[in-house]
UniProtKB/TrEMBL annotation:
It holds the Pfam family Cyanophycin_syn. This is Cyanophycin synthetase. In the C-terminal section; belongs to the MurCDEF family. Residues 245-501 form the ATP-grasp domain. The keyword Cell inner membrane does not apply. It is an enzyme of class 6 (ligase).
Amino acid sequence: MKIESLRRLRGPNVYLSRPAVVARLDLGALAGVETCDITGFPERLLRALPGLTEHHCAAGAPGGFVSRLRGGTYFGHVTEHVCLELSQLIGRDVSFGRTVSTDEPSVYQLILECPVDEPSDSSVPRDLLTMAVELVTEIVAGRSFSGVALASAASGIPQMQHGSAADRLAELAAIASLAEREATGPSTRAIIAAARRRGIPVERCGDLSLIRLGWGNRRRLAWAAMSDRTSGVGIDIAGDKEITRRLLADAGVPIPAGGQACTAAAAARLFAELGGPVVVKPRQGRQGDRVTLNVMTGAETTYAFSAAGEDVIIERQLAGRDYRVLVVAGEVVAAAERIAAHVVGDGRSTVTELVDRTNTDPRRGAGHSRVLTRITVDDAVLRVLERQGHTLAYVPSAGQKVWLRETTNLSTGGTSHDVTDRVHPDVTRLCLRVAALVGLDICGIDLRLADIADPLAPVRAGDEVSGGVIEVNAVPGLRMHLAPVRGRAHDVGDAIVRAMFPAGSDGRIPAVAVTGTNGKTTVARMTAHLLGDSGKRIGLTTTDGVSIDGREIFRADATGPLSAQMVLGDPGVQVAVLETARGGLLKRGLGYDWSDVGVLTNITADHLGQDGLATIEDLAHVKALVAERVRDGGTLVLNADDPWVRSLVDRPRVRADRKRIVWFGLDPRQPVVVEHLAKGATAFLLQDGWLVQATGARRTPLVRLADLPGAYGGAALHAAANALAAAAAARALGAGQESVTRRLADFDPAVANPGRATLLRLGDVAVFVDYAHNPAALAATLRTLHELWGAERCVAAVTLPGDRRDDLLAACAQIVADGVGRAVLYDDEDPRGREPGEVSALVEREMRARRPKLLSMRADSYREAITSALSLARPGEVVLVLYERLAPVLRLLSELGAARAGSAPLPTTPAPGALRSPARELVRGVLQG
C-alpha cells in the first residue's frame, strides 16, 4: 500500500464540522482482497490493537468493526480504523473516519478527523497513517505484535522488543512524543474550551500557546494565562523578584525579610544578618528552577548562590504551607495548596520503583503538557534524599512519605489541593491589592501561611512577618486549579474568558459568505459596497484579492480559508464579506465556523472532473457547506431561479427551520417564491422592470433595471440577479432600505468590479472585458452582447482554462460558435496541466464542427489575440475579450488607446437579442446539468 497524497482541511468541511485530513491510498497488491481472504489476519490485528473491538463502524455499536473484519472488508477500511486506534493510543481524541472509493479501482480516499487545535502543519497525521499502512502490511505478511507493548510505547514506557516489533514501538513512541509536544498545554486548553462553550471563534497560531479569540475589532489574543491587555510593565515587575519585593514592601504588604546579592560576599552577609533557614533563588527565575530552600549554613549559602546564577534573592524562609492564589480581573477565582514532589512507601518498593510507579499516572507528562508533570530524578532529588538520610535504593515503610523536592512547583512533580472555599477574606483582600500594585490583570500570588483560612495580622514596623507573599507570577499556570489531586476543580479558563469577553459577548463580527458558480465575486463586491454607509470598516475577500476598508492589501485568488482568516484576524475589521470558492472548500475547508448570512448565487457545470467532482450534484454538495454553516437565526439568501440552489433547503444539515430564508430571482412567478411570499416572508425580485424587496403582498422598489449600473439598460439580466442577491445580504445585516437603494445606484462596476462586464471604447469599436469561463457564464455574457449588438456584430478573443474537462470546453466552444461572428483563440500562459496550444486547438475543432464557415484563428498570446480581434472588428461592433489574468489585458487595452465607455451611447440598431436556437437548447441543457 502507498499513500499518494494527503491534504489538511483546517475547518468545517464537506465531511464533518471539525478539521480532518484527506489521504489518497493506493492498496497496490491488496486491491480486491478482503480481510477474510487472509488466514489469521483478523486475529493478529486484534491481538496487536485490542481497542479495535470497541470501534462501532456502520453498526453503530461496539463490535461493529470486528464483525466487518471477520466477515470480510477491504484494506482501505482497515487502515482507516487502525489509524484511528493508533491516534487513541497516543492520546489524540479523535473518532471520525470514512473510506471512499474513487474512479481508480485500487485507490481509496481516507478521511480522518484531527484534533481541533493540532497545528495545521503537523506531521502527526501523516506519521500515524504511514505507521497504520506499515502495520497492516506487516500483519498481512504474518507478523504478530503485542497490544500491551504498543500501548506502553504510546505512553512513553519502553518495552523490550526486537526486530520489526521494536521498530514499530520506537516509531509509535516518537509520534506520541511529537503529538504531546505540539498539543496545547492545560492552561491554553482550558481557555480554548471555555471560549468554544461560549461560541467564541478560536484560532491557534501554529504550535504555540498563542491563540486568537473572536474576530475583527472584537478579536482578543491570549498566550497561556496572559491576555493582550496584560501589562508589559506588570510582567517585568513580576519577573524581577527584587523589584517586586521593593514595590510590595513600600505598600506595607507582608513579605519575608531579605534582599538582593550579586556577589558571594554579599550573599554571605545577607545570610549572617538573616540566619537560617533562608531561601536562595534567582532574581529572575521561574517555575522553581535553581531555587534552594532550607539553607542553614554559610557554606550552603555559597553553593546555592552559585547554583542560582550569582544574581540572587536571599530571604528568610517563612514557616507554614505553600499556597497559590489566582487573581483574574480583580477577582480571586481559585486557590490551591501546593505539595512538593514525594512518594509514599508500601514497605516493599525502593524509592526508584516508587518514582517509576508514580510516573505511570496518565495525568503525568513531560513538561506542562498534562495536568501533572513526571518526576525527574536529578541532583536536586539526590540532595533532598540525602538530607533525609535516604538514597534511591531506600525502601520506605508502608505509609511513609519521602520528599523528593523542596520546592512545591507542579513543574518539578508537585501536586495541589484545592482550598478556594477556605480562603479568608483578609487573604482575598491582600491578593487583590498585590495584583493591583504590580499591575496585572491575571496573576498567581504565592503565599506562605500557617493556614489560608486564618485572618492576617497587620504588618508592624520592625517586626518579622510570620506569613506573607513570597512571589508574584505573571502568566501563572492553571493546572493546579484545573485538576487538583484533592478538592474541587475550578474552570479558571472560563474566568479568563469572561474577563476578556464581558457581558456574554461571543467575540464575533457580522460575516457574509458568498458562493456559487458564477457571480460570486460580483455579489461579494456589491455586498461590501452596499454596506458602505454603515460607517464600519469592511473586510472583503474575492478571486482577485483581499481588501480592508476599500483598500487592497493582498493580491491573489483569495477565496480560501487563509484569506478568510486574514480578514477575520484583522483588528480593524468590523464586517466581513467572504467569497468562498469550491477549491478552498475542498482543499482546505472553511476559513470560519459560522456566518451570519450565506449567499448561493447559482450552481452550474464547472470544475467537473476536478477533485473528485463528477456531476453537478457533487458540486452542489460542496457549495451546500456554506448554507449548512449559517448560524441558527442567520439568513440564507438563495437563487429561486436555480433548481440546484432550490434543492439545498431539503438537505438535513441546512436546517431551514432554524434559518431565515430569503429568495431572490428574476421570475416573480417562481412557485417557491409565490409560496414563500404567501407566508409573509421576504424575497428580492425583478418585477415590472424594477428591482424590488417583496414581503408578503408588499413591494418596496429599490432601483429600475434600466438604471442599474452594469445592467446596460436591462440587457444584462444576470447583473440584476447579482444586485438582488447583494441587496438581500446587505439588508440581512441591517443595511437600511434607503441606503441600499442609494448605494445600488452609485455602484460603479468599472471601478468596484473590474473585469466583470467592463465596457471600454477604442475608437468606434466597443470592447467588452469579462471573465466568463464556463458554459453558463458565456451564455449570459453573449446574451447581453446580442441584446446590444447582435451575434454577427460580435468578435471574440477567447481563452478557456485548461483544467476543465473536455466536454465542458466543448460546450463553451459551441456556445461561442453560435454567439459570435469571428473569433481569435489563444491559450493562457499557464495551460494548467495541458500541452501548450491544446485548449485552443480543442476549442477551434469544436467551433468548426458547430459552424464550419465561422471565421476563427489561433494566436500565440493574449496580445496577439486581442490585437487580431480588434483588427477583425468593424465600426459599431463589439470585441469580447475573455481573460485569465486581468491586469496585463487592461494594460494592453490602455496602451492601444481604449478608455471607459462612460456615458457614450450604446448601439442604437441592435440585432435580434437571442442566441441561435440550437445554442439556446445547449445552454438550457448545461444550466440544468
